[in-house]
Specification:
Layout lengths: L17 H8 L2 E2 L10 H4 L3 E5 L1 H10 L4 E6 L7 H15 L3 E6 L1 H8 L3 H18 L7 E5 L4 H11 L4 H8 L8 H14 L12 E6 L3 H14 L2 E5 L5 E5 L19 H17 L6 E3 L4 E4 L7 H14 L9 E5 L25 H10 L8 H7 L7 H10 L3 H12 L5 H26 L14
Parallel strand pairs: 3-4, 3-6, 4-5, 6-11
Antiparallel strand pairs: 1-2, 2-11, 7-8, 8-10, 9-10
Helix pairs in contact: 5-9, 6-17, 7-9, 9-10, 11-12, 13-17, 15-17
Bound molecules: tryptophan.
């Protein structure tokens, strides 16, 4: 594998060939018609791919519970790029999801040299107060610190049993020189992602993790690790329907009726199959072909839509008989917005982005200097029109500041036809961004002495 076919979550260099990323890494397309109450990022195709989102949409449509998880690295300042994930988290919350926010203070300590104390300060004053201002509901949001929730680290260790250095090489391109912080952090992150399914943190339910595509390696790793812990697999049956198979592992061998010499203990195997059959019967599947000897149950009448329902019921059985019973996480991916200079956005280059705390004056300066899709002279611009695909002011209206599709379309049309000049579209962007930032800062002030409302009890000092 060449490095071009890998995604490096620690690099500031990001590929923007999203179609290629989607195909190379097996992401699924977002079908906008299936998204209820689509927000601006959905409507404009900015959220472009997912893994396993159908499970979550199905929960939304049936009013069933599900969780949303996001994480922040408490280093540096929060900027517009970070706000995209929060926008999605908020949308999932409005559709009924409960929200867990990871403050990755251990990851910041290990990979960015930020002390835990400093990390806490940055998380609260730079990130969580902006999340509050963006409209997350404190009653349905739980913020925790990796360093203060030892169970996520413990889970990282447990899940670590299911992987090895070769897999890390393949996913992340690690070599002998790789710092071990980069080995630990993904395992803790896997712990972050699955732990809301523990009984103490909301129990068995699907969890969705909206991320930028740079975080997909962690999602892929976690989905793989979780699948390897599962005691039962649900697969598509060749001649239609679904097949359940046993995943026999060291820790479940006895329960699955495999004796130490490898032979099958029929009584034990049959007992297990009785439990499986009664779980399926509760879901209304009576027409099944059970083959305890081979360790399979076929359900010809089940459709792909039944898959996650069956999975959940098997996971709850798995928990009852001693397994961990985790669902693989679902995820969504957004496109990155271009930096203000036309290059990549980067926190270490303030001129490439707008920070949530930027003054109106700083923001205006950045927009005025932003990369433009306008022509060299007014005469040419009137004749040829502006290029929306390059124009930063237009793209920031599209990604952040102009909520109305109709208005955005009309601005775009005027710009492309040359009626609207480059300076004029920048002024529109400045006006909308001014409203946006002013509103955010007012809301931030309203929340400033109530940020603790967002913290889970294990994260209060
Ligand atoms: N690694 C993420 C970052 O660099 C932070 C993070 C930690 C995270 N745990 C997470 C993100 C869980 C999403 C889900 O920003």
């Amino acid at each position: 594998m060449t490095s071009g076919s890998r995604i490096d979550p620690w690099s500031s260099q990001q590929s923007t060939d999203y179609e290629r990323i989607r195909d190379n890494f097996g992401l699924s397309n977002i079908e906008i018609s299936k998204i209820p109450n689509p927000n601006l990022l959905h409507r404009r195709g900015i959220i472009f791919a997912h893994r396993g989102l159908d499970t979550i949409l199905d929960r939304i449509n049936h009013g069933d519970n599900f969780g949303v998880l996001t994480g922040l690295m408490p280093s540096g300042k929060m900027h517009l790029g970070h706000s995209m994930v929060i926008n999605q988290v908020k949308w999932f919350q409005e559709q009924g999801g409960d929200v867990t926010v990871t403050v990755a203070d251990l990851e910041a300590l290990a990979t960015r040299n930020v002390s835990l104390k400093e990390g806490r300060k940055i998380a609260l004053s730079e990130y969580i107060n902006n999340y509050a201002a963006m409209g997350l509901d404190p009653d349905k949001t739980n913020v925790y610190f990796q360093s203060m929730r030892p169970i996520v680290q413990r889970l990282g260790f447990t899940l670590g049993q299911k992987t090895n250095i070769s897999e890390f090489e393949a996913i992340y391109g690690f070599s002998g020189e790789t710092n071990l912080a980069h080995v630990q952090a993904p395992l803790v992150q896997a712990g972050d992602i699955v732990h809301p399914q523990l009984d103490e943190y909301g129990g068995l339910r699907p969890i969705v993790v909206p991320v930028g595509v740079d975080q997909d390696p962690h999602i892929r790793l976690t989905r793989g690790l979780v699948s390897k812990t599962n005691w039962f697999n649900v697969k598509n049956r060749k001649s239609g329907g679904l097949t359940i198979g046993l995943s026999i592992q060291e820790e479940n061998k006895n329960l699955m009726g495999v004796s130490s010499n490898g032979s099958i203990n029929r009584d034990v195997r049959n007992q297990l199959f009785d439990k499986l059959k009664s779980s399926l019967a509760k879901l209304g599947f009576a027409d099944i072909m059970s083959n305890p000897k081979h360790g399979t149950i076929e359900i010809p009448g089940a459709t792909i839509l039944d898959k996650s329902k069956i999975q959940l019921s098997l996971l709850s059985l798995e928990r009852n008989i001693g397994g961990m019973g985790f669902m693989p996480p679902s995820s969504t991916y957004h496109r990155f917005v271009v930096g203000m200079t036309g290059d990549k956005m980067s926190s270490s280059k303030p001129e490439t982005t707008i920070f949530m705390h930027d003054s109106i004056e700083d923001m205006s300066k950045k927009v005025k200097r932003a990369f433009s899709g306008g022509q060299a002279t007014v005469e040419e611009h009137r004749r040829l029109g502006g290029d929306l695909s390059k124009d930063v002011a237009y793209q920031y209206l599209q990604y952040f500041f102009e909520e109305s599709d109709k208005e955005l379309e009309s601005i775009g049309r005027d710009y492309e036809s040359g009626r609207l000049l480059a300076g004029e579209i920048k002024q529109i962007c400045i006006d909308r961004a001014t409203e946006w930032l002013t509103d955010l800062s007012e809301k931030r002030n309203q929340w400033s002495d109530r940020i603790e409302d967002f913290l889970s009890s294990d994260s209060k000092l």
